[in-house]
Amino acid sequence: MTWPVLAFDIESIPDISGLRQLRGEPPDATDSDVYARWLAERKERGQSDFTPLHLQRVLVISCVFRNADGLKVHSFVDRDDASEGKVIQTFFNTLEKHVPQLVSWNGGGFDLPVLHYRGLRHGVVADKYWDMGEDDRDYKWNNYISRYHMRHLDLMDLLALYQPKNNAPLDAMAKLCGFPGKLGMDGSQVYPAYLEGKLDEIRRYCETDVMNTYLLYCRFQKMRGGLTETEYGQEIELVKSALGNLAATELHWQEYLAAWG
C-alpha cells in the first residue's frame, strides 16, 4: 500500500438554474415550479426522476486523505450557492499538489463524470488529472482517466470485474465487512435536506460515506496483499484514533464509532 491515498465522495442536487436555461423557463417561475414541471414531463415519458449527470450541481466533496503524516477527513462545501466552481477547482488543486491514488465507490460511474461536466461549465483547470501521457510519459500506462488503471481505483467497478450487473451497494458491503455503513440519510434525501437548510447534515453524511469507502479500500488492500494482517489492524486502529479526535467536536463521528462497536 503506497501513500498518498485520497478516497472521495460527492453529494449533488438538481441544477435548477441549468434547467431554467435549457428549458427557457419564464423568469418569474419559482425553483420548485421549474423542478416540478421537469419531473412531471419525465414521468409522462416514463423516464426516471434521476437528474442527468450534467445537471447535477456539486454541493459537497468529502475526502479521506492518508499520507505518511497520518489521516485527515476534509470536505469542500458550496455554502453560498455560487461557489460550485471553486469547490471543484479546490478538489482538483489537491490532486495537482499531492498526485494521490484516487479511491471511490462508483466514482467512474457517477462522481467523476459529474465533476467533469460541472468543471467544464465553470472553467476548472486540472492538467495533471487529464494527462494521459502527452506531458508525462508515465501517465500513458497509469492515469486517472483509464478505467483499468489504478491511479483512480473505482473499487465497486473493480470488485464487480467491470460488469455492472455485479455491482454491490457501498452500504451493504461496508456492513458486511463490519463497518458502520450509511448514517443519517441516503442519497434520495439530500435534495429535500438541502431545501431545509441542512447543509452540515449533508456534509456529515458525505463524510461517513467516504470513510466507509476508505475502510473498504483498506480491506481490499489486505485481500490483495497490499497490507499484511498486522498492518491492516494498525491501519484500522489509526482510523479509530483519528475519528476519536474528530468526535470531540463532530458528533457524527461519535455516532459512527458507536455503530462500529
Overview of the structural elements:
It is a single chain. The protein is of the alpha/beta class and 261 residues long. It has a single domain, classed as Nucleotidyltransferase, domain 5, CATH 3.30.420.10. It is 49% helix and 14% strand. It contains eleven helices and five strands; from the N terminus they run βααββαβααβαααααα. It has helices spanning 16-23, 31-44, 84-98, 107-122, 127-130, 155-159, 170-176, 190-195, 199-224, 229-246, 251-260; strands spanning 5-14, 56-67, 70-77, 101-104, 152-154. Strands 3-2-1-4-5 form a five-stranded mixed sheet, sandwiched between helices. Strand 2 (56-67) and strand 3 (70-77) form a beta hairpin. Helix 3 crosses helix 4 (107-122) and helix 10 (229-246) packs antiparallel against helix 11. It is globular.
Percent of residues in β-strands: 5-15%
**Count of DSSP H/I helices:** 11
Query: What is the molecular shape?
Result: globular
The CATH level-2 architecture is identified as 2-Layer Sandwich
Overall pLDDT: 97
Assign the structural class, choosing from mainly alpha, mainly beta, alpha/beta, alpha+beta, or little secondary structure.
alpha/beta
Strand line-up across the major sheet: 3-2-1-4-5
CATH topology: Nucleotidyltransferase, domain 5
User: Distance N terminus to C terminus?
Assistant: 26 Å
Number of domains: 1
CATH level-1 class: Alpha Beta
Query: What is the succession of H and E elements?
Result: EHHEEHEHHEHHHHHH
Largest sheet: 5 strands, mixed
Helix content: 40-55%
